[in-house]
User: What shape does this take?
Amino acid sequence: MHQRSLLLNPLRVVLGAGLLAALGLGATACGGSASTPAAASGAKSGGTLTVWYMDGDLTAPDQAAIGAAFTKATGAKVDVQIQEWSNINTKLSTALAQNDPPDVVEIGNTDVPLFAATGALADLTAARSELEQGQSWLPGLSGPATVSGHLYAAPLFAGNRAVIYNKKIWAAAGITSVPTSYAELTADLDKIKAANPAPDFSAFYFPGEYWYGALQFIWDAGGELASNGGGSWTGALSQPAAQRGLSTWKTFQNTYSTPASRDVDTKSPDQAALFAQGKAATILDSSLNTVLKDNPSLKGQIGTFPFPGQNAGTSQPVFLGGSDLAIAAKSANQPLAVAYLKAATSVAVQKADIVGIDGWTPVSTQLIAQTSDSLSDTSKAFAQAAVNSVATPATPGWATIESDASINQFFAAVATGGQSPQQAAASFDKHLDQALNAAQ
Amino acid sequence: MKSRRTRRRFALNTAATVFCLVWIFPVYWMVNTAFKPYGDILRPTPGFLPIPLSLGNFTDALGKPMFGDYLRNSLIVTGTAVIASSLLALFAAVALTRFRFFGRRTFLITVLAIQMVPTPALVIPIFLTLKGANLLNTLLGLALTYIGFVLPFTIWTLRGFLHGIPVELEEAAMVDGAGRLTVLRRILLPLIAPGLIASSVFAFITAWNDYVFAYVEMKDQGHYTLPVWLVSFSTSTGVDYGGLIAGSTLFALPVIVFFLLIQRRLVEGMTSGAVKD
Amino acid sequence: MPPSETGARRVRRVRASRTPYLLLAPAALVLGVIYGYPLVRLLGISMQDYGLRALFTGSSPWIWFANYEHVFTGGQFVPVLIRTFVFCVALVAGTLLIGMFVALMLGSLGRRMRGAVTLCLICAWAVPNVAATLVWQWLFEPGYGVVNWLLSRLGVFGDLTNRQWFASAFSAFVVVWLLVVWQSVPFVALTLRAGLSQIPRSYYETAALAGAGAWTMFRLVTLQFLRPILLLVGILSVVWDFNVFNQIWILTQGGPDGGTTTLGIWSFTQAFSSESFGQGAAVAVVSVALLLLLTAAYVRRLISAGEEW
Assistant: This one.
């Protein structure tokens, strides 16, 4: 408490501040120079909009194309910054809380409710028809952005997963046609496994923490993550259907993927890199881009197909991922920001750039139908798989499940056998009940 | 007698060798991995020598966009934190050891107690404080954060040092007509140099290593520091182990060199401060 | 003459009483900005319904002790607390024992060997925290980790190539323990070594003449002399190890199934994963209070050292 009275003596405060200023001179001087470009990109200069994109989503040419369309319409410039995924919610929370936030931010569709429901984003309800331009947006993208009838973000692109396989390894094992049922798939994988006995080889590399992929088995068995009744969520992984899917997945994972993969995520080791190096004959992933970046010589040797379901002729329901674009509530450039969203969701940009350059799934059912003919052979499987898609619970509490990694740990516990599917599901259901219903 | 001594010597040297092997292994493995070509890293049978040697990981790491900016920011923030915290701590330590005044005890207890606060808990409160002071997104705000974090430790260390230096020395000099500043420069500084080095090292490590505060306080990428750059090797699509390890090596290198240069005085500094407590 | 003399004396006394405050002011100001005010805010937030909405809109209703109630009644508190304590004790004990052993060893080694050991210590000490943790992850990576490979080669534990270290809480803690001890032994060993080198030889000679054995000598001379340093190193280790965060967070994120969640991790996940900064702050306040209790004896000792203060 005595410190306080020290601080309150004006003379000392002034002296102390003076000293600090002197000490900090170096920092301020250089800090000043470093912040010049930022200041130029800020609200005051009027002509520039700051846009945050996530690493690995839209490629640079795609971003540039959206920027060009926006500049053509408004005459304003765009300052694009790329954010890393690790700790992104913390980053977004603190950035959006500042008085000078980025104007437009890309947010993963499962995280949108967290920010939409808490006052971080500008209300776009009035601009809805302008943005929609008469199309029906995919519910997996616009649903999370809608809170009690108000719209807080516009869809940017969708993405989902399909099976990616190495044609050479598959052919070498004597497989000639693409499997159309789960039984055919496992029979093919058995052949591949028998032909490649190396201990670090996977017929189908499937990391234990890969929950996006593992969920497909639960959905295919008729189960779900959580059910919503009367406005409250209940974890549903202990239900018989979900349990069936879970144990099918466990057997699949344990049989066709290396033991080393049971407690890891897709990132370390990088599953695309393992595939690119020929250590995995097959993976489940959302695009070929990383594989081809790692090993360009594989071009033309990669095939794709939707992950087949238990019933012949069906495919497993997929998790619909993707991103929305939102405007910071505190942005000083609201009209410009809306114009940017309009450019990104426009039919021309969606067709030519989101689909044309990057091969992502466009944001409306009409666009999907219109672009399906122009797709390359490898992209078609992704589009086919997207038809049967499921979203994660649309509640702000879902972000907790992703960011505390409890869902990763749940599937890893099942894959490693650390817990039986029943045990693991019982405790994870409890966590779901609590997190999904938490008030924000 | 002699054989017993040789046996003892042998046992000691064996123990020391084992210790060295265990302790240096992670560092060796880090450097070894950094020099391996991309495809050689993920192999079930580890290669203990980086053959063929490749600098690809280093060029990849250095080629990441804005590396130069991050390096500059790290140097500015760390340099400011080291210099400012040493100076402020020195002043405070002089006050605490050379004067009796009301509130001295309270201040000391506060400084001691403050070290128990886990810094992750302060992320949001410091964020809000700096926001109120308009210091978010500035290198000054970040440097200030680090100065605050290291001050308790540095004040404590330097206080121990000054305590061990007899006041008579200064008084004698003052009688000879030397001013307070001269006393500080000519007599105190050389004696507490090891303490200053120890506290600078502490400040250096804290500021050089921090990730959380740099990430949260800085909004513009142009203001990030090197640890944030390091984390960028683990992206949504996969961890680039080669680049990550090469980056870590580059990141650790200045610290190792710095430590080796000053190690003798450093250890001296750590203990004198403590012994005379 | 007399008037000017009293004048001079008065000026000096005023200066003397003001100087210490002036010297302290800058440090106090920074501490006030970085610790003082934020701690007040932390205490405030711990009594508010403070989530993302509060962060964005600035409105945060007071709910007083509801966050604390939640912390204490949620059923997590006791296991987390026990885990934190046990882990902290294991870390401090490991660090001090190995550190002491290395310090003693350094004293009896030849010049070259001593140089080698010091070099290894310095290298381990200098590797930045985040870098070391990432390297650790790489060393213990299932399938590719060199430690798994080496242990399998030893043939004592069977084939550990695909060992999932982070799949069980115990083995995850062991890996984190190795990392933290690896990082903190250098400071402890070098500090104790420097302390040992200041023990006058004559003490040992006297003890030897009195017929003391090696153990008695260690107990009565070495330990006795090292007491203040040991106490300081011990208290610093307790504080640092109680608050170990980065290493656990990067390696396990508190898993599997909450098995490595310590107080620090818990506070962080409450704040940043559940977006409830209020509850995170309540956990933090509780853990600071616990640490203060733990170290109160030390602080009291320092105070009762009288003259020192």
The radius of gyration of chain C is 25 Å. Chain C touches chain B through 93 residues (CB under 8 Å). The CA atoms of residues 68 and 112 of chain C lie 57 Å apart. Residues 2-45 of chain C form the longest helix (44 residues).
